[in-house]
Amino acid sequence: MITSVFNLSRQEMEQEISTGSVELAISISDPNQPFIVFPPNIPVLFLKFHDIEGEPGQSDQEIKDDFTKPVVLFSDTMAQQVVSFIKTHNTNPSKSQTLFVNCEMGISRSGAVTWFVKHLLDLDTPVNTRTKPNNRVLNKLMKQQ
Question: Which of 30, 50, 102, 141 is close enough to 13 for a disulfide, judged by CB 3.0 to 4.6 Å?
Fold first, then answer.
């Protein structure tokens, strides 16, 4: 059962892995960055997308058209993967687990996922003071409940 959740930067996650404290993770990378290497016994959901929000009401295509290079947006499919991962790993009440969520800087993408997990599971984990959740990610996750 997931009893706490924390968002971290890529560097902080790599440090936590080196200390052996990571039990469960959602790892978000920029599309042009390699994934973090985790020990094979740790369940991890790996996602790659850019930290892009867009304007309220703007379509995916309109957001993509604002950029000269191709962008990868957080999608409904990715939101479903996050929800499924959380539900899969929140089923054993006799096993208490901490979920670590990272993105490159540990601020907006991981902040949105962390906020959603806290809301979904009604957790009372302290909020990282630098967190500024990505609204696109948060809105897509909230629609999956």
Answer: 102
